[in-house]
TrEMBL record:
Keyword tags: Hydrolase
GO MF term set: hydrolase activity
Span of domain AB hydrolase-1: 21-150
Protein name per Swiss-Prot or TrEMBL: Alpha/beta hydrolase
UniProt superkingdom: Bacteria
Matches recorded under InterPro entries: AB_hydrolase_1, AB_hydrolase_fold, AB_hydrolase_sf
Annotated transmembrane regions: none
Amino acid sequence: MSYYDNDGCQLHYEVYGQGAPVLLVHGLGSSTRDWEYQIPELAAHYRVIAIDIRGHGRSDKPRESYSIAAFAQDVRALIEHLGLDRVHLVGISMGGMIGFQLGVDHPELLKSLCIVNSGPEVKAKNPFEYLEIAKRWGLSRLFSLETIAKALGNLLFPKPEQAELRRKIEERWPENDKRAYLASLDAIIGWGVRERLARITCPTLVIAADHDYTPVAQKEAYVKEMSNARLLVIEDSRHATPLDQPQRFNSSLLAFLEEVEQARVC
């Protein structure tokens, strides 16, 4: 268990294995535990670094407004704290947004980028999207974290055989600090860096679940705007792909990382 400080905030991170650095960035309301099915396999080949973003997990939860840009600066500070040159960054959901933000602000820090069930903006484009965002904002304030956890567990893991994954969500989600959770949700809504995607030139793998919250077509659209990106769709998966399809996810990520590393050697 290790910590570092950035901008007056103590942040928790974990390190496993040896080799080229792979930095894992979790999603909203989660923690390093997002990656429990990835860390052992990745650490057999790479130096794996998992961070708790401020407001989450074992990191401090300052009583202030949050932003995706500030989260990205926390990640940048960790890279500097560890004395790393460039990293392979893997981010899911909000973690993917942080990856995009770091990529446009500090592209020199990335060897590669893997974006999982995320996108470069959260901006409503039509009345339906405005309604969906407003509904999520309102319900998150109206209901307790326990109620949200139960609904989320059923949404992410609806199959009978996924009972253990539902149990984990129902146990872990209420451990969040509600104020920090809402501040992080507020940081997401209205955020975007899509107009700056051209700054990201490192190899990028976008992984999209076929049953994610947002359709595959949205990922296809922004991948076309990037100079060195490709899209991989994982079937029979929802928003938490590393948890509901760990074998397919791990093999795909490892193949991508090996390809990037081999290209650097050649």
